[in-house]
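Pipeline run #58 for the internal structure catalog. This entry was flagged by the ingest filter as a single-chain record with no existing model, so it goes straight to prediction. Upstream metadata was stripped on purpose; only the residue string is passed forward. Reviewer on rotation: M.T. Logging verbosity set to normal.
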Amino acid sequence: MKRILWLLAAVAFAQDPVSITPYQLLVPNASSGLIQACSGCSIYTYAAGTNTPLATYTSSTLGTPNTNPVLTNSSGYAVNGSTITGIWVGSSCYKFVAKDANAVTLWTQDNICDRGAVLQALLAASSGASLIGFQPTGGSVPITVASALNSAYLYSTGYSTLALACSAAAAANKTLAVVSTFSNSPAQALNCDLWFPSGAGAMIQPASGATITMSTGRNVTAADFKIIDSSAGGTFTMLLSPSSASVAWWGAVGDDSTDNAAAITSALAASKDVRFPLGIYRSSTAQAITVTGQRISCGGGAYSPANSGTTVKFTGATSGFTVSGSGIYANSIENCHITATSATSVDGIRLTGTGTGVVNWALRNLHFTGTWEKAIHAVSSAENLKIIEPTCVDIEICLYIEGVSNSVDIISPLIGGTYTKGLVVDDSQGVRVIGGTIQGTATYLVENSGSPEGTILIGTWLEGAVTSLIESSSQLTLTDVIIGGGSYTDHGIHQSGVSTLMITGLTGVGNPGASKCLVQYDGNASGSAQGLSITGSYVEATGATRHAICVGTATTSSSVTVIEGNHLITSVGDNIVFDVFGGVHSIRGNYFTSSGYNINASAMADGKLIVNGNNFATNVESGVPADAYKGNCIGCTYEFALPGTNVNNTLMSFFPVNETTGALGTRAQIGSCTAARKGLSFPISDADTVVYNAVVAGGGANSLNIWCDGTNWRAH
């Protein structure tokens, strides 16, 4: 607390007066200018900076407040009642306003404080330690007592070696805040967590040949700036740490200029989880950057036309990243734009291995541009791979799956531009393409070859100006695939070799080459089992002399063709063309529209052909044996004809009722009663008799059921 001295009004009111008692207010005489006592004056006391009244006290105990305002007697002394008093303040700060007996303001003084009391109160508060700062011995960054006492960090200043600083931090159960550089540090295992504050500029420099290792479970935390100096020839590793490491920690700079090959390699050698901050990172090495089980991610989020993300640019490499080794399990490369500028660039990402190889890897949201020969190349001993949302623009081969024995899922690829082949599957098994779009100008969008077999496309969109959309000599399954148009110099889908082609739910509209087919199945002359199955599909070949489905010359006696439940359309060509030496070929339940032949089997040298239950817009076919062509409708409005017949009528079904008007069919529309139809019964609308079991000729006006006795239709 502080006693207040009443000074001359012409002098500033002091905040640290010498204690003098009693207190007297003196003012200059208005006439003579001589100093005189201020009789009957008033001192109003307020909280500092306000007009809120705040009482002062009569003694240092701060027990009895003065009146507010404080009055003076005829001698100018402050009084409380008739007793001369002092004016004492506590830890608060005041504003004093002095007025004469006529209430005229003499002076105002703000921020009157007892500094000792105020400071004592501040330091006694819970935040008091934060008000006392100091500069640690040997340090350049001042800190406060609070940060030193309460912080989770032990600052490295004052410690001569990294080992001593880390040991002290571990003993105190604190993270070591590295705010000073440790040069030429010897080999050691760090059993403490490390934090590199921004702006400190501190680094760890391993000595030549030394390896500094983060112990199991210990973390490193830093923003994207350099914290490891490898210039002395030592290494820093955190392979046992759960922390993600930034390539910037080793000095990588995303400025599209700096050669970051060494920094990237060091980061990959040091950590299992490496990230590239937002930027363009060049690598000018002539060697691929090897990945042995690390997760690699790029900042900026997934690539999209609106988000170019982070780019890793290889300007001198034969390959970009090579994931290799034995037992390289369950990691990923994510959200990167990977490009190349060298004419010798081969693979953007190459996955290869020995022994158990590269297993359960994911390549997610990767975008490839530039001079790559192949964007992603999975080689033998790579299996159970997930390639998710890859995009390629003008890459010779976007995806090359070679010799992979088990399970590759390619999910939602986007391949476009001008290139040679979008997807190549060679000697691989269990490859699935799920969704996505493959389009552009190319030789083939998809090439499927070799053995073992088993490539599946599900819900993929194919479109382009190509030789063929799909060129396949290995087992191929297409489910819900869409052919969105385009023109081809050869076939749309071409299957050959000792293999099976299975198509379900295809929606295909395209323009094959002259006398070519939207789907061409050739099989193989070796005699091995093979087959073609097309079900539930819409196949339309546009252009003159273009065909919908062709079964080629190499098909053997062991071949089986099933074409069932499809809608087939050609403008000028044939819907189905057979040019085979053998096999069994079943065509059932299809709807045909063609200005050429619905079925052209004129070149079919051998084999069994079954054409049953189809609906032909016109009765145009060639080379179909009479005994094979049964149970079809030609120009029918109904989907099913009577068994064993081909009927050229506009009303025909097992139950001949017009679906539009509800009218029954006629006797003539039923056709003849033969031994093969004995026992069949149908309702008609024009019976000429209603006598039970009488022969019905038709032409009458009676509606009833008739039945076939093997020779005649009879009333029933």
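catalog note: The longest strand covers residues 437-449.
catalog note: Residues 2-120 form a domain with the Tailspike Protein; Chain fold (CATH 2.170.14.10).
status: ready for reviewer M.T.
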